[in-house]
Design a protein that fits this description.
- The structure is a single chain.
- The chain is globular and about 60 Å long.
- The strands form 3 sheets. Strands 5-4-3-6-7-11-10 form a 7-stranded mixed sheet, sandwiched between helices. Strands 1-2 form a two-stranded antiparallel ribbon. Strands 8-9 form a two-stranded antiparallel ribbon.
- The protein is α/β, with parallel strands linked by helices.
- It is built from 10 helices and 11 strands.
- It has 2 domains: 1-79, no CATH class; 105-327, Vaccinia Virus protein VP39 (Rossmann fold, 3-Layer(aba) Sandwich), CATH 3.40.50.
């Protein structure tokens, strides 16, 4: 008999306390109550948890499994309350026209799926991202400066975060308004949810390509952290046009991205060349991704050309470029 790793838990979706009824209950592997597990047909995050749970239970099984109830995938209404400290998701209707993702999109998604477990090592300067006390102290100081800059922006209301990754900036954003987080890779988004739960904050999480058409009501703010550098130069205008379609008139875009400092990446990463970078994971796998380092002047010119006003672009010094502007 397999034994679920979480016999008693708070549901990751609705926050409800639940105790499994039999040792091999799927709920204990998914950390979802039966009601939320049964809604896996209407939400990508719930489907992701269901698939993970099925795989984990199959891997843990040492005998022929007993028949289990198949979760109902018929959509049912969901309800969340402000008192529930969870990350929740509800999708709105799609509006506008989607843009075709670049030809490198599949490679990018595969890379960030594989990198999810070690992505935060980059922020925290751990392992292959350690560059010695002097460089790491500079990194930490500039990372803090970038956070203070983002926190100082007048952001509120409906906030969209594209390419949210593991959610490093998401707790800050979720504390300012109603956050909607999107990422094309499932694994990092699952870690982002865990980060929000740890901060007792809420957000709407969706597995969704950054090039997809905007959905829901117009946003008051849109944040993209380390995403602009993954957009090829000849698609910059198209992406900023997409941002404009996300935002309500007067809505704010905020961008944090990379400068080409050799001490920014892992010690075994070669500098980007021809707007491409070969990234190596700890297990030795390699991926080639788009990596475009733009100057302050390039970012400012692109935002201005896209019709944004109040354009402000600066740097923290060595590692990060910071940009904000208002939709005209």
């Amino acid at each position: 008999m397999t034994r679920a790793p979480h016999p008693t838990f708070a549901c990751l979706w609705c926050g409800r306390s639940w105790t499994i009824r039999t040792p091999d209950d799927l709920e204990g592997y998914a950390k979802l109550c039966p009601d939320c597990l049964g809604r896996a047909g209407e939400n990508e995050f719930l489907r992701f948890r269901l698939r993970e749970a099925l795989e984990a239970r199959a891997a843990a099984s040492t005998v022929t499994p007993t028949p289990t109830r198949t979760p109902t995938l018929t959509p049912t209404p969901t309800a969340t309350t402000d008192a529930t400290p969870i990350a929740a998701g509800m999708a709105g209707p799609a509006t506008g026209q989607a843009l075709e993702p670049p030809v490198t999109s599949d490679q990018m998604v595969a890379y960030y799926e594989a990198r999810a477990t070690e992505y935060d090592d980059w922020y925290l300067r751990r392992g292959r991202y350690e560059h010695g006390p002097i460089h790491d102290a500079a990194w930490n100081a500039e990372l803090d400066a970038a956070g203070r800059w983002l926190d100082s922006l007048p952001i509120s209301g409906r906030i969209v975060e594209l390419a949210a990754g593991t959610g490093w900036w998401s707790p800050l954003l979720a504390s300012k308004g109603e956050l909607w987080m999107y990422d094309a890779a499932q694994a990092p988004l699952a870690r982002a949810r865990e980060r929000l739960v740890a901060h007792r904050l809420r957000a709407h999480l969706h597995v969704r390509d950054a090039w997809a058409a905007p959905d829901g009501a117009p946003a008051d703010a849109l944040f993209a952290g380390f995403w602009l550098s993954h957009i090829e130069r000849d698609r910059t205008a198209a992406f900023l046009d997409l941002v404009g379609r996300w935002l309500a008139p007067g809505g704010r875009i905020a961008i944090i991205d990379s400068l080409p400092d050799p001490r920014s990446g892992a010690i075994d990463h070669e500098p980007a060349a021809d707007d491409r970078s070969v990234r190596r994971l700890s297990d030795g796998r390699e991926f080639t991704i788009v990596k475009v380092h733009r100057t302050v002047e390039e970012v400012a010119a692109a935002l201005t050309a896209a019709g944004f006003r109040g354009v402000e672009v600066t740097t923290t010094g060595r590692f990060f470029v910071l940009a904000t502007a208002i939709r005209g």
